[in-house]
């Protein structure tokens, strides 16, 4: 009799434990994170560490990570996140979803590492505040911004008078940004708008002569490593930016503790990326040279002239795209 009661107690305890475990499992939120970092890019490990931080916080969140644009390019991911098909995204925010997002492409806004940290790394900066508002209008939740460095051009053909403003004699890819297109064409390049996923095969096949797209690291890890490209031109007209954001539909399903953990982890990951990226750039310039690439440098005078040319010829046109109020807000001292 005593044995029966003992056995019954064990069975009851096991049943209760199983019930609690099943309940805890049922309460776990499983999120899908789509990213665009290649697995050999330093940002891939940063995202993996971010996921580990979120899961280790023990707030009932598990994340499946799909890097290297497995679920689509940045242009595609923002649309899927709006629909709620993807829960979390790490990617560049393209402006096809809202022309006001062109504010991310304002040329010449950032020219130094201190600028990069202040504008991109500070969650309360003017840029991040503006971006959060636009994303909210789209049904998205902005989490954090990374600035990996300044963007240059990779090319198979050497541009004519690369530091001047005349016709360069080459056709290069620009991303889906009217600002990027205007800026690049103002420097004398012919342009073709193309999704990121199409760039490498297009450059391999000669459909385009080059692409404005990349920090030295992206130029090396994506193009030089594939045996594509001969020249890198550090025009530095824009920031290689990557943002963390969430689908608003998915965000609504999370409790406040889960939201706080995800946001804090994303902000920390973004700051690690910013601090790491700047230190890495020069090393990848050297690796490009070792791979046989020619780096077409600007003198300080040539760069100052280029920035002045862009601000004089491109900035006035941006009001029609993003709104003069946003430009004034972003550039106000």
From TrEMBL:
<dbReference type="Pfam" id="PF03480">
    <property type="entry name" value="DctP"/>
</dbReference>
<keyword id="KW-0574">Periplasm</keyword>
<feature type="signal peptide">
    <location>
        <begin position="1"/>
        <end position="26"/>
    </location>
</feature>
<dbReference type="InterPro" id="IPR038404">
    <property type="entry name" value="TRAP_DctP_sf"/>
</dbReference>
<dbReference type="InterPro" id="IPR018389">
    <property type="entry name" value="DctP_fam"/>
</dbReference>
<comment type="similarity">
    <text>Belongs to the bacterial solute-binding protein 7 family.</text>
</comment>
<dbReference type="GO" id="GO:0042597">
    <property type="term" value="C:periplasmic space"/>
</dbReference>
<protein>
    <submittedName>
        <fullName>TRAP-type C4-dicarboxylate transport system, substrate-binding protein</fullName>
    </submittedName>
</protein>
<dbReference type="GO" id="GO:0055085">
    <property type="term" value="P:transmembrane transport"/>
</dbReference>
<keyword id="KW-0813">Transport</keyword>
<keyword id="KW-0732">Signal</keyword>
């Amino acid at each position: 009799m005593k044995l029966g009661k003992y056995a019954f107690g064990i069975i009851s305890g096991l049943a209760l434990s199983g019930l609690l475990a099943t309940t805890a499992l049922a309460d776990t939120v499983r999120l899908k994170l789509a990213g665009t970092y290649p697995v050999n890019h330093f940002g891939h490990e940063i995202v993996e560490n971010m996921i580990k931080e979120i899961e280790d916080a023990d707030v009932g969140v598990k994340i499946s990570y799909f890097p290297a644009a497995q679920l689509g390019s940045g242009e595609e991911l923002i649309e899927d996140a709006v629909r709620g098909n993807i829960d979390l995204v790490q990617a560049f925010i393209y402006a096809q979803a809202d022309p006001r997002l062109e504010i991310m492409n304002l040329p010449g806004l950032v020219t130094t590492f201190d600028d990069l940290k202040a504008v991109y790394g500070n969650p309360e900066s003017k840029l991040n505040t503006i971006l959060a508002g636009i994303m909210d209008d789209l049904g998205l939740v902005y989490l954090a911004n990374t600035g990996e460095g300044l963007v240059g051009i990779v090319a198979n053909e050497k541009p004519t008078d690369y530091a001047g403003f005349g016709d360069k004699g080459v056709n290069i890819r620009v991303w889906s940004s009217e600002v990027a297109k205007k800026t690049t064409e103002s420097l004398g390049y012919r342009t073709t708008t193309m999704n990121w996923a199409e760039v490498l095969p297009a450059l391999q096949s000669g459909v385009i002569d080059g692409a404005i797209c990349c920090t030295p690291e992206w130029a090396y890890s994506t193009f030089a490593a594939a045996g594509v490209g001969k020249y890198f031109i550090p025009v530095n007209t824009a920031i290689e930016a990557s943002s963390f954001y969430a689908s608003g539909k998915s965000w609504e399903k999370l409790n406040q503790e889960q939201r706080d953990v995800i946001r804090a982890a994303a902000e920390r990951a973004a700051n690690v990326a910013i601090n790491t990226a700047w230190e890495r750039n020069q090393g990848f310039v050297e690796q490009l040279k070792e791979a046989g690439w020619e780096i077409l440098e600007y003198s300080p005078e040539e760069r100052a002239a280029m920035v002045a040319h862009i601000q004089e010829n491109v900035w006035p046109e941006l009001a029609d795209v993003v709104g003069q109020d946003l430009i004034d807000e972003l550039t106000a001292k």
